[in-house]
Design a protein that fits this description.
Blueprint lengths: L1 H26 L16 E10 L17 E10 L14 H9 L3 H12 L3 E6 L7 E10 L5 E9 L4 E9 L1 E2 L2 E2 L2 E6 L2 E2 L22 E2 L24 E8 L31 E2 L17 E5 L2 E3 L12 E5 L11
Antiparallel strand pairs: 1-4, 1-12, 2-3, 2-5, 5-6, 6-10, 7-8, 9-12, 10-11, 13-15, 14-16
Pfam families: Spond_N (PF06468), TSP1_spondin (PF19028)
Keywords: Cell adhesion, Disulfide bond, Extracellular matrix, Glycoprotein, Metal-binding, Secreted, Signal
Subcellular location: Secreted, Extracellular space, Extracellular matrix
Length: about 325
């Protein structure tokens, strides 16, 4: 009997210890399951406004004026957690990113997002209307939940080989609070799937594909590139987004999703980007004109590749002459 009583007491002691451990474990604050550290109570409503600053004053080099003129595609955005990436600088473009960056088609991106939603790593996909000019606005309303507090988005530049602007995994939550307002200036990115240098370059697939990279005033380091401005340390913002938290009221029924804002909202002003004149190499010297021994001259020319703009360096002389030398003379046949 004594041994059985001791055995029963031992099991009761172990059970008591286990219950105490469970009590303290659940008494601690619950950790977020999304890996982002967001412990906000309830969702947050936001208005996302995309603004294009793509103007001939800020980006005068090869600025697209027609067929087609400078414009922006529809915006595509996703709320998600850290287990999903719409796109990422330094990584290769997914088939969906490639299709969107090259031709503006969202089918593959939407398929990938639907698969991710099944795994609960993506919340909601959002889209806005395209903007038919380089300068303009579009907006959409978003509802962000604590499980998916990150925001990623893309907008294609039209025309371009595979260039786009966007944000990657922007966190709208800080601890247990939602951010009230976020503004981000946007720079162009190259998806790494097309090797065109200019806005209107023909289709030229990159083989093998390269990683997504940011386009700067000196990268790619080639004078033919539409964003090559060697005098600038950095490019002015070509677009921006502003995300503002909204108060949700029961009587609010009007949605402004995919609404293009009125023209009364002025775009942000940036200083004009100077564009220096670019000329070709000199041609070969021509034959001598006039007497070869005295008074004869020869000529060479060059032509303008790119006219200056916005107080850029003026073009140099396009024609040059020089005095003839004996080996330039054409000897008469006897």
């Amino acid at each position: 009997m004594m041994s059985s009583e001791r055995l029963a007491c031992g099991w009761l002691h172990k059970l008591l210890v286990l219950l105490v451990k469970l009590h303290f474990a659940f008494a601690e604050p619950l950790q977020p399951l999304n890996g982002t550290g967001c412990t906000a109570k309830g969702p947050a409503s936001y208005i996302l406004v995309f603004t294009g600053h793509w103007s001939p004053q800020s980006f005068p080099k090869q600025y697209p004026l027609f067929r087609p003129p400078a414009q922006w595609s529809k915006l595509i955005a996703a709320s998600h957690n850290r287990h999903f990436r719409l796109w990422e600088e330094g990584s290769s473009a997914s088939p969906g990113v490639q299709s969107f960056a090259e031709v503006g088609v969202t089918v593959e991106l939407m398929k990938a997002a639907k698969e991710a939603r099944k795994k609960r790593t993506v919340g909601v996909m959002y889209r806005t209307a395209g903007i038919p000019n380089g300068i303009g606005h579009s907006s959409t309303e978003m509802l962000i939940v604590p499980r998916n507090p990150l925001l990623s988005l893309m907008v294609k530049m039209i025309p371009s080989p595979d260039w786009f602007v966007g944000v990657d995994s922007l966190n709208l939550c800080e601890g247990n609070r939602w951010k009230q307002e976020v503004t981000v200036d946007l720079q162009p990115y190259d998806a790494g799937t097309d090797s065109g240098f200019t806005f209107s370059s023909p289709n030229f697939p990159t083989s093998p594909p390269e990683n997504i990279t940011k386009i700067t005033s000196q990268m790619p380091n080639h004078p033919a590139n539409s964003f090559y401005y060697p005098r600038l340390k950095e490019l002015p913002p070509i677009a921006s987004i502003k995300i503002t938290r909204q108060r949700r009221t029961p009587d609010r029924q009007t949605s402004i999703s995919n609404h293009i804002l009125p023209n009364s909202i002025n775009p942000q002003r940036f200083s004009a980007t100077p564009l220096d004149c670019e000329v070709s190499l000199w041609s070969s010297w021509g034959l001598c004109l006039g007497p070869c021994s005295r008074g004869g001259v020869r000529h060479r020319t060059r032509y303008i590749l790119l006219r200056p703009a916005n107080a850029g360096s003026p073009c140099p002389e396009l024609e040059e002459q020089d005095e003839c030398v004996p080996h330039n003379c054409i000897k008469k046949r006897q």
